[in-house]
Amino acid sequence: MKTQKAGKMGNLGNSVENVININEIDKNRAVGNLGKQGNLIDFSHDWEEPVFFDDFKLTDIPASILPSPYKDLAVALSERLETPESATVLCMLSILATALQNKYVVQVENDYAEPLNLYLMVAMPPANRKTAILKACSKPVLEYEKKQRLLLEEEHRRQLSVYHSQRRLIENERKRLTEEKAKNGAIEEIAAKEASLIEPSALPKLFLTDATTESLATALYEQNGKISIITDEGGFLDSCSGLYTGGQTNIDVLLKGWDGGSLSIKRRDREVYITPLITIFMIVQPVIFENMAKNKNFTGKGFFERFLFCEPKSKIGFRNHKGKPVPAGLTKEYEERIKAFLEMPTPRSPIKLSLNKAALNAWRKFQDKVERDLRKGGKLELCQGWGGKLCGQTLRIAGLLHLARYEKTSATINEDTMKDAIRLAERLVCHAAKVFDNFILSSDVRIKEASVVWNLIKGFNKSSVIQREIVYALRHKMVAEHIKELLKVLIERNLISEPIRAPGGRTTTYLVNPKALRKTDV
């Protein structure tokens, strides 16, 4: 039987998408959908856009967003390792941030500036050569740190020895203190000597691969308020979540380290205040994202809203293992540029980068677009806290791209650089939406179970389904009444229609949104 005309099927509307071919319903279903008088059910439906659970078109971040030589090295490295360019691009941005995070700010208005540090998290399955990416990008930082430690180590040991000896002498004086000496001013002399003690500066440490929040705070104090966490393991998050401390955790240092908020640190017998800046780059397995969603110690504090997330498409299964070695000249130029930024003295006050008129206009337009996307039904509805920080994140990215392109020759960000930063930010939106959608799925059991029902229906690949076949397929997992409640969630999301009952019949049928069936992941 061919597709029925509107007169026989009821009002089908003008869209061909709303026409259901009766041949797609099996014979038993067709019989069930006949009333006592043999009348057909009206299978017409005006569909709205479906709201999916976890179907996201994840866009890649091309190396072309970076200027040369960073772009050229990112392409060569990705081809050599046969890994997504996205991972290399974001790793390089974290290295730039490590070198520049307390040396520059992007000044938009008199009372508004953004630092250049970033919190980045990339998820890739095992065997995607995450360590190789990290090793290649972070090499100049490691070499610079090693060189500085060799230069300063001997003097540091000398200063440390002097400091401990002086402290020992003071302690000995305190032990020999008598009432008579105290009357003659010995207490004030001891206090003056103690106050004059200068604690030696710690050896340079640019980044950590693992830390507790307490050791991170100590590192910030020792490194003049700046440090990075760069790692290919998820242990850092486990430590911060209180996994090894009975669930007790304090992530204030991570919250304050994102924007330089005032942080109090206890040091022996005194309390010091710093304004920390932290860069975080984690390239981990996707299971870390899932574990994050289940961890209640981070939720409700704005911690994950500070991260830029990316889950690049893996190339495993399509690699030919014939990648050419990275040209030595490219590697050398990249390393020299990063080392030049590292060697730049830290100014007393960060150098201000400004936006020219065209760049400011481009950023303002992006700001307006983001604001619209934060509305109900917008791209950023699921992650409003994250989206609210996106424009500021874009300024940080623009500052890093500008310095990578022009180094110290210009303090004004132009329109082209701002557009590259906006392009990168826009491509990260879908990745964030997927992460925060998974957070919702993990925290709301009803939504998670409804997604199981939807995946079953989607697997049928039919234009309509009978309720009893859903119940039968899930009989070992859920009871029928609970399944009916979960089907209401699918109706709310415009994935299936309201239940259709044949006049006088006992079969309940649901139409499936054809737009939902055509949806595929990229």
Describe the protein:
The chain has helices at 6-9, 27-32, 70-81, 85-100, 130-175, 179-183, 186-196, 213-222, 235-240, 252-256, 287-294, 328-343, 357-373, 384-387, 390-406, 415-443, 445-460, 467-473, 480-492, 514-517, and strands at residues 104-109, 112-115, 119-123, 207-208, 226-231, 263-267, 270-274, 277-284, 307-310, 351-355, 412-413, 464-466, 500-501, 508-511. It has 522 residues and is of the alpha/beta class. The strands form 4 sheets. Strands 4-5-8-3-9 form a 5-stranded parallel beta sheet, sandwiched between helices. A 4-stranded mixed beta sheet has the order 2-1-10-11. It has a 3-stranded antiparallel beta sheet with strand order 12-14-13. Mean pLDDT is 84; it is low at 1-39.
Summary, kept brief:
By secondary structure, this protein is α/β, with parallel strands linked by helices. It contains 20 helices and 14 strands.
List descriptors:
522 residues; five-stranded parallel β-sheet; disordered N terminus; 48% helix; 12% strand
How do the strands and helices of this protein lay out in sequence?
Layout: H1 6-9, H2 27-32, H3 70-81, H4 85-100, E1 104-109, E2 112-115, E3 119-123, H5 130-175, H6 179-183, H7 186-196, E4 207-208, H8 213-222, E5 226-231, H9 235-240, H10 252-256, E6 263-267, E7 270-274, E8 277-284, H11 287-294, E9 307-310, H12 328-343, E10 351-355, H13 357-373, H14 384-387, H15 390-406, E11 412-413, H16 415-443, H17 445-460, E12 464-466, H18 467-473, H19 480-492, E13 500-501, E14 508-511, H20 514-517
Parallel strand pairs: 1-10, 3-8, 3-9, 4-5, 5-8, 10-11
Antiparallel strand pairs: 1-2, 6-7, 12-14, 13-14
